[in-house]
Amino acid sequence: VLDSQYGMYVWPCAVVLAQYVWAHRRSLPGKRVLEIGAGVSLPGVVAARCGAQVILSDSEELPQCLQSCRSSCLLNHLPHVPVLGLTWGRVSPELLSLAPIDIILGSDVFFDPKDFEDILITIYFLLEKNPHAQFWTTYQVRSADWSIEALLYKWKLKSIHVPLHFFGADKEHLASSSLPGRHTIEMMIISLAQSDGT
C-alpha cells in the first residue's frame, strides 16, 4: 500500500493489525488506545475512525515519523488525534503523564532485536499503570531464532498467539493489496502475567 503523493509506505504488519482492529470495531467506541512506533499509523487511524480515543506515538528522535503520524491524521480527517514523541525504554514526562489506556497497538515494532527489551520495558510500564490493558501486536518472523519469550518472562508479561484466520487476515489479498511475505506475519496479545491474581 503505497501513497506516492505523500511517500507513505504501509508495511504488511500494519495492514494485518488494522484488520484485527476492524474485526473488533464494535468494542472500540470509548476505548482509550495508544499506538507505539506508529509511523503511518494505519491501525491507530482505523481505531480512531471506529470511535476509540486514540493517541499516536513514535520516537521523539525521529521527527519524520512523528510528521507521518500527523499527516495520516490530516489525510483521514482526524485533526484532533494527539501525536506524542515516546522513545522506547525511556521513562519520559510524556510517558509518565499519559492518561489511562485500554489497548496498546504496535505493528512490526519487533523489528530489530536490540530494541526488544526497550519496547517491553515501555509496555511493562504502561501495563503496570493500566493492569487491564492489552498490547495488540503483529510482527514479521525474519529469523528462526527470533523470540521474545525470555524477555516476556523477565518482565512478568504473557502472550497469547492469535491465528490470522481468526480475524480474516489469512487471505491472499488483504485491504485490496497483495502483501509480500504476509505468510510470515504473526499476531499476539501481550498482557501482565499476573493481574488481579489471574
TrEMBL record:
One of its GO terms (cellular component) is nucleus. Keywords: Chromatin regulator, Cytoplasm, Developmental protein, Methyltransferase, Nucleus, S-adenosyl-L-methionine, Transferase. InterPro entries: Methyltransf_16, SAM-dependent_MTases_sf. It holds the Pfam family Methyltransf_16. It catalyses: L-arginyl-[protein] + 2 S-adenosyl-L-methionine = N(omega),N(omega)-dimethyl-L-arginyl-[protein] + 2 S-adenosyl-L-homocysteine + 2 H(+). It is found in: Cytoplasm; Nucleus. One of its GO terms (molecular function) is protein-arginine omega-N asymmetric methyltransferase activity. GO terms for biological process: chromatin organization; methylation; regulation of gene expression. Its main location: cytoplasm. Belongs to the methyltransferase superfamily. METTL23 family. Interacts with HSPA5, HSP90B1, TUBULIN, UGGT1 and UGGT2. Interacts with TET3. Interacts with STPG4. Histone methyltransferase that dimethylates histone H3 at 'Arg-17', forming asymmetric dimethylarginine (H3R17me2a), leading to activate transcription via chromatin remodeling. Maternal factor involved in epigenetic chromatin reprogramming of the paternal genome in the zygote: mediates H3R17me2a, promoting histone H3.3 incorporation in the male pronucleus, leading to TET3 recruitment and subsequent DNA demethylation. This is Histone-arginine methyltransferase METTL23. It comes from Falcunculus frontatus (Eastern shriketit).
